[in-house]
Each structure stands twice: as structure tokens, then as C-alpha cells.
Amino acid sequence: MSVEVRVPTLGESVTEATVATWFKKPGDTVAVDEMLCELETDKVTVEVPSPAAGVLGEIVAAEGETVGVDALLATLNEEGNAGPEEVAPRHHSEMMEDKPAAAGAAATVDVMVPTLGESVTEATVATWFKAVGDSVAADEMLCELETDKVSVEVPAPAAGVLTAILAAEGATVAAGGKLAEMSAGAGAVAAAPAPAAAPAAPAGDKDIENAPSANKLMAEKGINPASVSGTGKDGRIMKEDVLKAMTSAPAGTPAPVAAPRAPVAADDAAREERVKMTKLRQTIAKRLKESQNTAAMLTTYNEVDMTEVMALRNQYKDQFEKKHGVRLGFMSFFTKACVHALKEVPEVNAEIDGTDIVYKNYVHMGVAAGTPQGLVVPVIRDADSMSFAEIEKAIAEKGRRARDGKLSMAEMQGGTFTISNGGVYGSLMSSPILNPPQSGILGMHKIQDRPMAINGQVVIRPMMYLALSYDHRIVDGKGAVTFLVRVKEALEDPRRLLMDL
Question: Is residue 421 a contact partner of residue 444, using CB atoms and an 8 Å limit?
Fold first, then answer.
């Protein structure tokens, strides 16, 4: 059977790429996930793995051609359909046969790193739930991996016994790498438990070829490959790795190191605990600092009287939950109010791309959520076309998946504006940091009874401070203040939302 090799998703806003190098030619046998070719975009280099084992047929897009997302690159004659002399070897010689194992026989099954998501090439082994010698059921969780965006659970590919762990906790593994081995089938026998092995060097290191574009750039700039950390498959050096190394340090000089810690007394050092930052925490730190370095960030403040929203919520919350099966919270009111304000001040819902301003005629609302692993921002897509009930259901579902570490990369991409509710933790006032490349983020805070002067009388009202951080490169002060005032007006008189006023 012929299998099509197509251009993978290239990343947000990237629509085309150039075919840089073909590593295989027609007639070559290839294993599943073996690299076929390399594409270059204006942002990253993308490797295209073989979708199946077999023989490469026709190359449709030659080197140097420009191709769009999902364009046909080549055809592949899948294993078992390529003729007796052309069948490609299995991806791993010890992979379990497609047919059931013979009675009394046990097959070795490899436990591989699953697809980690767009642009994610490596992960850290966080926790092994099983030890060598343990019996496991098919689809039972073996271990958990951490990437810079999400946590990924790895299920057992078959029922059997875990016989070897090749990547210990704390090891960094590449997408498609080998984590462990299992013995599956009627003859599977529990082996004597053995300590987890240290991360093994990728098999055949001597055969790992760096990306041609990377080799060319290193040769031009006189960079020693040993000084470049490769992020490609099995540690392969990609072009962007070289560019990153060039940015971080001049060629031939050691990479800069962090400023040394201040001296610590011996008795204090004994009471300290050093824990390596998770991939997620490293990414949070990097992105927040990038945001401060890139955007001209400014924050404007206001306050909102929550009396009317609270009264409306108390009046209808029981009926709402009975009909829609979800609680009526404040987040749907704030989402609706922000959507309403974004229509009037569209630059808060836009982003800068080079020298262009990209206005979004839709609202993909990011809702910041705190998790045990750190802050994540799942995105409610097309929030501007959703009802109160649909928004509440989406927020509840995304929040639950965030806490369980089940969010995919796709669920955290493409946001156009963000709401962050620090009030649930008791925050009275804060200045939220932008979530790049977005131009605005609204900070909600604690509702607190305060004495207010209304119509010449001092009355107690439930008040909340609001903070809008915005990118002053694209949003002027007038626009930011107008946005915040419109949010305040919509919340203090929720009927305005129904009247679109």
C-alpha cells in the first residue's frame, strides 16, 4: 500500500517551508520515524519522519522547492507491500510481531517516547510508576514525562512485564526515543528487579548526522560542534541550535554562566534544598522575561462595584446550574465584558508582527490557571460567539485538565487576550505580565467590602480592583483606559451586555 508523506504542521502563523535536504532517495528502505527530509521555515528547521516502514517511492518536492502545510512531499511503499526484496526492517528488531505471540512465547516490546506536540523535541522523565519486574496491563501508566509546556503520561503498549528501564527519572529524552522494554505474551516472566539504568547514549551515535544547514553555518562561523547543544532527534544539531549558540556567546568563547550566589554559611547550606527547575517552570521564567524585554509594558488600574453582578448571580445561579449542569461563576461575566470592550478597542486584541499590526476579528480568550506544576494558560477559542453556559463549561473543563496535567499544546496556543484571576488566592492588587505575543491581559482581584461615597452617602459595597497590562507599542493610554472603563461599565450594569451597549 502506498503511504503519502506530507508537510507537517509548521507552527502558529507559519504557512510554508523550503525543502532543504533529502536524506533518502527513491528505492531506499526506511524505518518508521526515520528522518526522510528537512524543511526550513523563516523561524525553525523541521524534520520530516517516515510515517511507516517501507521503501521510498517517488519524491514529489525536490530540494529547494517551496511547499505549503500538508503538501505532498513523497510517496512510500509500506512494509509488506514493497515486494520481497524491498521490505524495510522493523523500526526496532525486537518490536512485537503484528500477529499474536505463539503459545508460551514472549515478545519484547519497546516503550517509546510518544509524540510530544508541535515544536517540542525533548522531555524529562519525571516519575516512573512501575519498577523493573512489575507486571502491567495494556494502557496502564508506566511513567510521566515533563516538557516545557505539558506533562505527558506514557501508557504500556501491551500487557506483560517491565524488563528494563533505559531512561531513569531526571533523564532528558528525545521525541521518538526509547524509554524501556517490556516482555509481552503468554511466556512473559517477571525478571529480578534491577536498578534503573542511567540514560543510555543513543544507539549509533557515530552515525548521527547534523542538519546540513547547521554544518554549513558552523563551518562559516568557525563554531566547534562540541560547543552546540543539539535539540534534534538523538541530539542532532539543527540550524536554530547554532543560531542560539551564536546569540548566547561569540564563536570560540565559553557560554556565559549565571552570576554566582552570595556566600552562604555552612550551617545554612546544610539546611537548604536544591531542586532542578521543571521544564514548565523554566519556560515560564523565560517567557515572562522575554515579555518584559520585548514589550513596552504599562499597567492601568480601575475598580468595579460588583453589587449588580453578585445580585444577578445569586438570583439565577440555582436555575442556571439545574439547566446547564455547571455553576454560574464570575469568569463568564468578565469574559463577556472583555469581549464587549475588545470590540470597541480592537488594538488590545491585536499583536505586532514585525512592522505590521495584526488585528484579530475573533476572541480566543486565555484563562490563566494555577496548577501544582506552575501557571498555564488554556485558551477558550471563539469566546466571542459563546453563551454564558458555554463559557462556564469550557473554563471548568480546561481548568480541570490543567490541574491534572492533561492539557495539550494546541489547547494553550493561539490566545488573543488573557484574563488572570489572582483574587482566588486573596490578591488585592497586582500588575499582571503580558502573555506574548498578546497585547493585553486583565488582572482580577479579591472582592472586598469597602465604604464608598454614592450620591452623597457612605455605603458599603463589594469592590474589586482591576488591572490592565498592555503593550504601549500598539495600545495608547486612551485605548487602555477606555477598555478598562467599558469592562467596569458592563459589570456594574450587566444589562448592557444583553443590549450590546
Answer: yes
